[in-house]
Write a structure and sequence with these properties.
It is a single chain. This protein is of the alpha/beta class. It folds into 2 domains: about 5-220, YjeF N-terminal domain (Rossmann fold, 3-Layer(aba) Sandwich), CATH 3.40.50.10260; about 240-490, Ribokinase (UDP-N-acetylmuramoyl-L-alanine:D-glutamate ligase). The chain has 16 helices and 19 strands. It has helices spanning about 15-25, 30-50, 65-80, 95-105, 140-150, 255-270, 285-290, 300-310, 325-335, 345-350, 365-375, 380-385, 385-395, 430-445, 450-465, 480-490, and strands at about 10, 55-60, 80-85, 110, 125-130, 155-160, 180-185, 190, 205, 225, 245-250, 275-280, 295, 315, 340, 360-365, 400, 410, 415-420. The strands form 2 sheets. Strands 8-1-10-19-18-17-16-15-14-11-12-13 form a 12-stranded mixed beta sheet, with helices on both faces. The chain has a 7-stranded parallel beta sheet with strand order 4-3-2-5-6-7-9, covered by helices on one side. Helix 14 packs across helix 15 and helix 15 packs across helix 16. Keywords: ATP-binding, Isomerase, Lyase, Metal-binding, Multifunctional enzyme, NAD, NADP, Nucleotide-binding, Potassium. This is Bifunctional NAD(P)H-hydrate repair enzyme. Its cofactor is Mg(2+); K(+). In the N-terminal section; belongs to the NnrE/AIBP family. InterPro entries: CARKD, Nnr, Ribokinase-like, YjeF_N_dom, YjeF_N_dom_sf.
Amino acid sequence: MHADRHLRDLYTVEQVRALDRRAIDDLGISGFELMNRAATATFTFLCRQWPQARRLVVFCGPGNNGGDGYLLANLAYAANLAVEVVELSDAARGDAALARDTWLRNAGTTHRWHQDALLPQADVYVDALYGTGLNRALEPAAGALIERINASGVPILALDVPSGLNADTGHCPGIAMRAQATVSFIAAKRGLYTGQAATKTGTLFIDTLGLPDILWQGMPADAALLDAMHLGPRSRDAHKGDSGHVLAIGGDHGTAGAIRLCGEAALRGGAGLVSVATRAENLIALNSARPELMAHGVHGPQELQPLLSRATVLAVGPGLGQGAWGHALWLTALDSGKPLVLDADGLNLLAHEQRRFTTPVVLTPHPGEAARLLEKSNAEVQMDRFAAARELAQRYGAVVVLKGSGSLIAHPDGRLDVCTWGNPGMGSGGMGDLLTGIIAALMAQGCSAWDAARIGVGLHARAGDVAARKGERGLLASDLLEPLRLLGNGIEHD
């Protein structure tokens, strides 16, 4: 069986090193042969991606990543392309030294990089400077070279990982290469799909180097890429009571829009009934804008109780505020023991009054909210999003959606999925309110917290991508509602 079936599985750098070691020790494939396979895969991709390219410059470091680069240069030279190799040093070791010798025997020359040198002209630059082992900021000379390459305007192809990007976490501790495409080898490294990775990898292609499926046996993936999912068709005799009742709680003074977006997303996400508990002053606007929402003015916990008793799932936080009104409703909602989705000020209140949940709960923090929940800095959260998401899930006993580029969905048992959809246009007000309503609607229809979060994050991000076809700048949260309905029914938007 071919190993390509593992392409949705994500691995840590340590796990990929172990797979590499297995290929060498257990399958008898030499490290130099693996390097040749990597070079061949990359050259094939390069010819397909840039068929008109006739001049290449390959920038090589002293490690195995540089070894891949020397052998790629050798293949391009044999194909009659004009090739130059620029190296940071001549201190290649092991298989990388063999690769360097192969290049020198055939082409006979390399150029040592000096900061006052001009970059050679090329149709494509190839980044073979640093691989997956780098977890620190680059030294100044390498950083200066990468800055020059990034500013050149020449397309960049990265081997395995763009130099300077941590392949384990998606964090860049310093300057990093901004590639137009990246070919990564053996297995998908988890850090290439979240955090800062989207600005560095460009088009990402994984090549398993023809390795057999047996290599992966006994090596469980650390995480997985999210699948495109939706609920199946409803029974022909279904009625509104079969699809659950979402109660959306929030909308303090001046934030009626937040709770309306949450409620409307719950409707478009398929909930049979959606009630809204909000400030009385919001009722006229909500009823006129979306009469399908059952809006109720509540002054405090006593008026919330009868609404709680009828609800299947709670969506708590959009526009809630952290004042006395919001805190009282938040506390009453959490004490009800109902399944719930917690966002925005619902999370900020939780950061002040922490508790571990025993009922189905989904938390949907952005990095700033996650930092408050973990009592850390935003930078610490972004430095290792995987660790932060898992720590949140374990600490609070909840499924956690850590939002951002490459949103993560973490289960308290350690499972984790990564969403590869979404776009910068979704960085606007109200997007999180939509996600809260969508996930709550899916839970109301019978999904577990884990499945609701996974399906909901995927639908939300994919709807955002459809809406962004008209342009990312100026994208509104409400623009997602029409494609959300289609995608939620398994209808691909034209």
